[in-house]
Amino acid sequence: MIEINHLSKVFKLSKKQQKELKTKETTKTAVDDLSLMIHDGEIFGLLGTNGAGKTTTLRCMATLLKPTSGNVTVNGFDTVKDSENVRRSIGFLTNEIKLDPQFTPDYMFSFFGKLHGMTQEAIEARKEELFEYFGITEFKFKKIQELSTGMKQKVSIAVSLVHNPEIVIFDEPTTGLDIITARAVIDYLKKLKAEGRTVVMSTHIMSEAQKLCDRIAIIVSGQLVACGTLSELLSETNTDDLEDAFFEYYRKNSREVEA
Question: Structure pTM?
């Protein structure tokens, strides 16, 4: 179980960032007093526009960022005070994490397996399973820089799952992928759920969230504006699909934020 309690994250802005954002403010609030509970064994989706705070929220969950205020606990462990225990139970994937282009998938997988304290026998068994599933086996001795974008993404997913984590946190796992590769990733997320794993994912692809997620949270300007099952969100907004529901929440709450 993941519990997020009144999470806020404020970043200081450099002069360059102020110029890029066209603001005189010296800080930016990426996440604003957000509280959520994610249950064991569910696929939980975070929806929001670019800059809404999805990635910052996931990075706080994954111990990569320290909250400005509030806290996050994963299986009872605080992400700041007990970060090592949290990292043992999670796998985290973001598009901004790049594997070293000079190494091979085979080497990178073994390297990260050893970082997690796995035996060579366990690493090889896990490698065979994941490489076979994602079609990496025939490319495992090629340098990562020689792989296609889709194959690099599949290698990144395999590496993030090397230690068979209880909780998988994916930041927009299918962004930029072709339809075949994206389908393989989605099918694997379903497989993880069938095995009793907890999956937390951010996405801006509504059809993906609608098909996959047991519950969905919608974030606007760092604030939680809705959370529930698909049917609950549709009922609350009197809409027929998730995209329409999202725009209803966004229109209402973006006006309130601007006001």
Answer: 0.88
